[in-house]
Fold this sequence. Notes:
The complex is a heterodimer.
Chain A: E1 4-17, E2 23-37, E3 42-46, H1 53-60, E4 68-73, E5 76-77, H2 82-86, E6 89-93, H3 105-115, H4 120-133, H5 149-161, E7 167-171, H6 179-194, E8 198-203, H7 206-212, E9 215-220, E10 223-228, H8 230-234, E11 241-247, H9 252-260, E12 266-272, E13 275-282, H10 289-295, E14 301-307, H11 311-318
Parallel strand pairs in A: 3-8, 3-9, 6-7, 7-8
Antiparallel strand pairs in A: 1-2, 1-4, 4-5, 9-10, 11-13, 11-14, 12-13
Helix pairs in contact in A: 3-4, 4-5, 5-6
Chain B: H1 2-24, H2 29-54, H3 60-70, H4 72-90, H5 93-97, H6 103-133, H7 142-169, H8 173-187, H9 199-207, H10 211-221, H11 226-261
Helix pairs in contact in B: 1-4, 1-6, 2-3, 2-6, 3-6, 3-10, 4-6, 4-7, 4-8, 6-7, 6-11, 7-8, 7-10, 7-11, 10-11
Amino acid sequence: MKAIEVEHLRRVFRTTIGVLRRTVKNVVAVDDISFDVAPGELFGLLGPNGAGKTTTVKMLTTLLIPTGGTARVLGEDVVQRADRLRGRIGFIFGGERGLYWRLNGYDNLRYFASLYHVEPETSKKRIPYLLELVGLTDRAKEKVDGYSRGMKQRLHIARTLLHDPEMLFLDEPTIGLDPVGARELRQVIRGLQAEKKTILLTTHYMFEADALCDRLGVINHGRIIALDTPAGLKRHVLDLSVVEIDVFGMPAEALGRVRALPFVDTVSVENVDQKQVLHVQTPQGSAAVPGLMETLSGLRLGKVVVREPTLEDAYVRLVGGEA
Amino acid sequence: MLRTLRINARLFLEGALLSYVALFRWLRPMTYLASKIMMPLASILFFTYLGTYATSAGNASFYVIGNAIQIASVSGIYGVTMSIGGDRWEGTLVYLFGTPANRLAMFVGRAFFHVLDGILGVLIGLGWGVFLLGLDLSQTDFPALLITILATTFSTSGLGLLLGCVSLVSLDTMFVNNLAYFALLIFSGANIPVTTLPGWMAAISWAMPLTRGIAASRGLIAGESLATVAPLIVGEVAVGAVYILLGYVLFRWFEFQARRRGTLEAF
Lengths: 323, 267
């Protein structure tokens, strides 16, 4: 039996605009996706903002009723058997909310333990163990209000493990964390992976997906556009090199000119402090540099680097530079 | 069966205690005590002096009792509503709805400590009435009065649970709470005898919590027996139960609609 079986899953949100003359608008958040996840697998869902990752996770965690298709988690239908499923899964959504800030960390866990029907004898042992696991033992009796963002995220992880769920959904768990906090959280996720927990992880960070996930699904505009291992996804860009150019002030028409070059496959722009870093995927490697320099002439340029493609480059190519 | 009962009883009590602590922990003990002691004092003095000024000094006990019992609505409405609405602000609703917890135990548990809190508030209010305004309790059947206060705080907490659910979907929780609180001031009989209200207003009075509790308390303090006021007490409990039921139905409807329409985090 698969841990997750998704068939033609679809979710449309109906929104209305206006007060007197109301206009109804249907927004397709998830559009006919199908995939499955094996027991013990760490499956990653990648995609730009608004791609449908969180909507998918919400449907799989029983929090949102699909508009079409079916989804089974641990063999239970997410709509028909939602009550049975809830006690067998755990989930967290990125961000600081979702905890009782006026309670301390220990009491937060105590309350959620009772919500998940954890026996008092079990929770007395389980809560200290989980606090230790996420490195919050020393701060357990402090109000969550005073916790850093990373500590709150780690408390969320502890919360979701209280009932020892068979399956975990982690929706952008490291979002907004500082590098140290994110690294600590990834360590915790690795530990869960070692315990053979089945995990569905959504993330924006490619290195995180590359380092943690057994398999990845890339989702864009509500559709899964690629489904493979990290190594398999990288093969999408094996024929390409990446030219990185630092530009100080990148006008839109210059970006258009670069995109129009015949030897350019995909372009993305990353804002770093005062500059924009242009990531140009090209089959020509360093031979493309003179042509790019000529196209960008007149602009203030910095460092130029030619490198091998990464998973991020594969992702950018798949989503068409929307990352 | 027994295990399910045990689990739900624990959820009820843990939820009751922790949601209450979550609500008031931000207050320092002195601030909390001051609000428990000073607020009833201010409320009783204001309405008693206003009432006796407008009618006669002989009516003081009418206003003291009415407004002491009315204090139950502060915990019942504001406390319970904040306890439920707090989940909307804290972003915990999504995590609560993702658990297998019994919704009735989770929901009703939120009101439990506010019932106790309300009893304390009413007793303090009556205490102020005795010490400052000469309220005479010499004829009072105290156990019966305590039962009446319990029934009244139960019913106002029932209204609080319903309003708490309204707060999950409304944009202005305090507007709804204040509206209910002031409606009770008018309709409950605390300050205006229900018999003097027009028929349609009197009908509303008897459909609201507090009205029967205040009437029963006045009767008991005047020397009536528990048996005499028992119908009023039973009625008060029944009104509270109806509000709890309505609140619970609204709570489940909200959960279903949030899952159907994807509005769980829209507020």
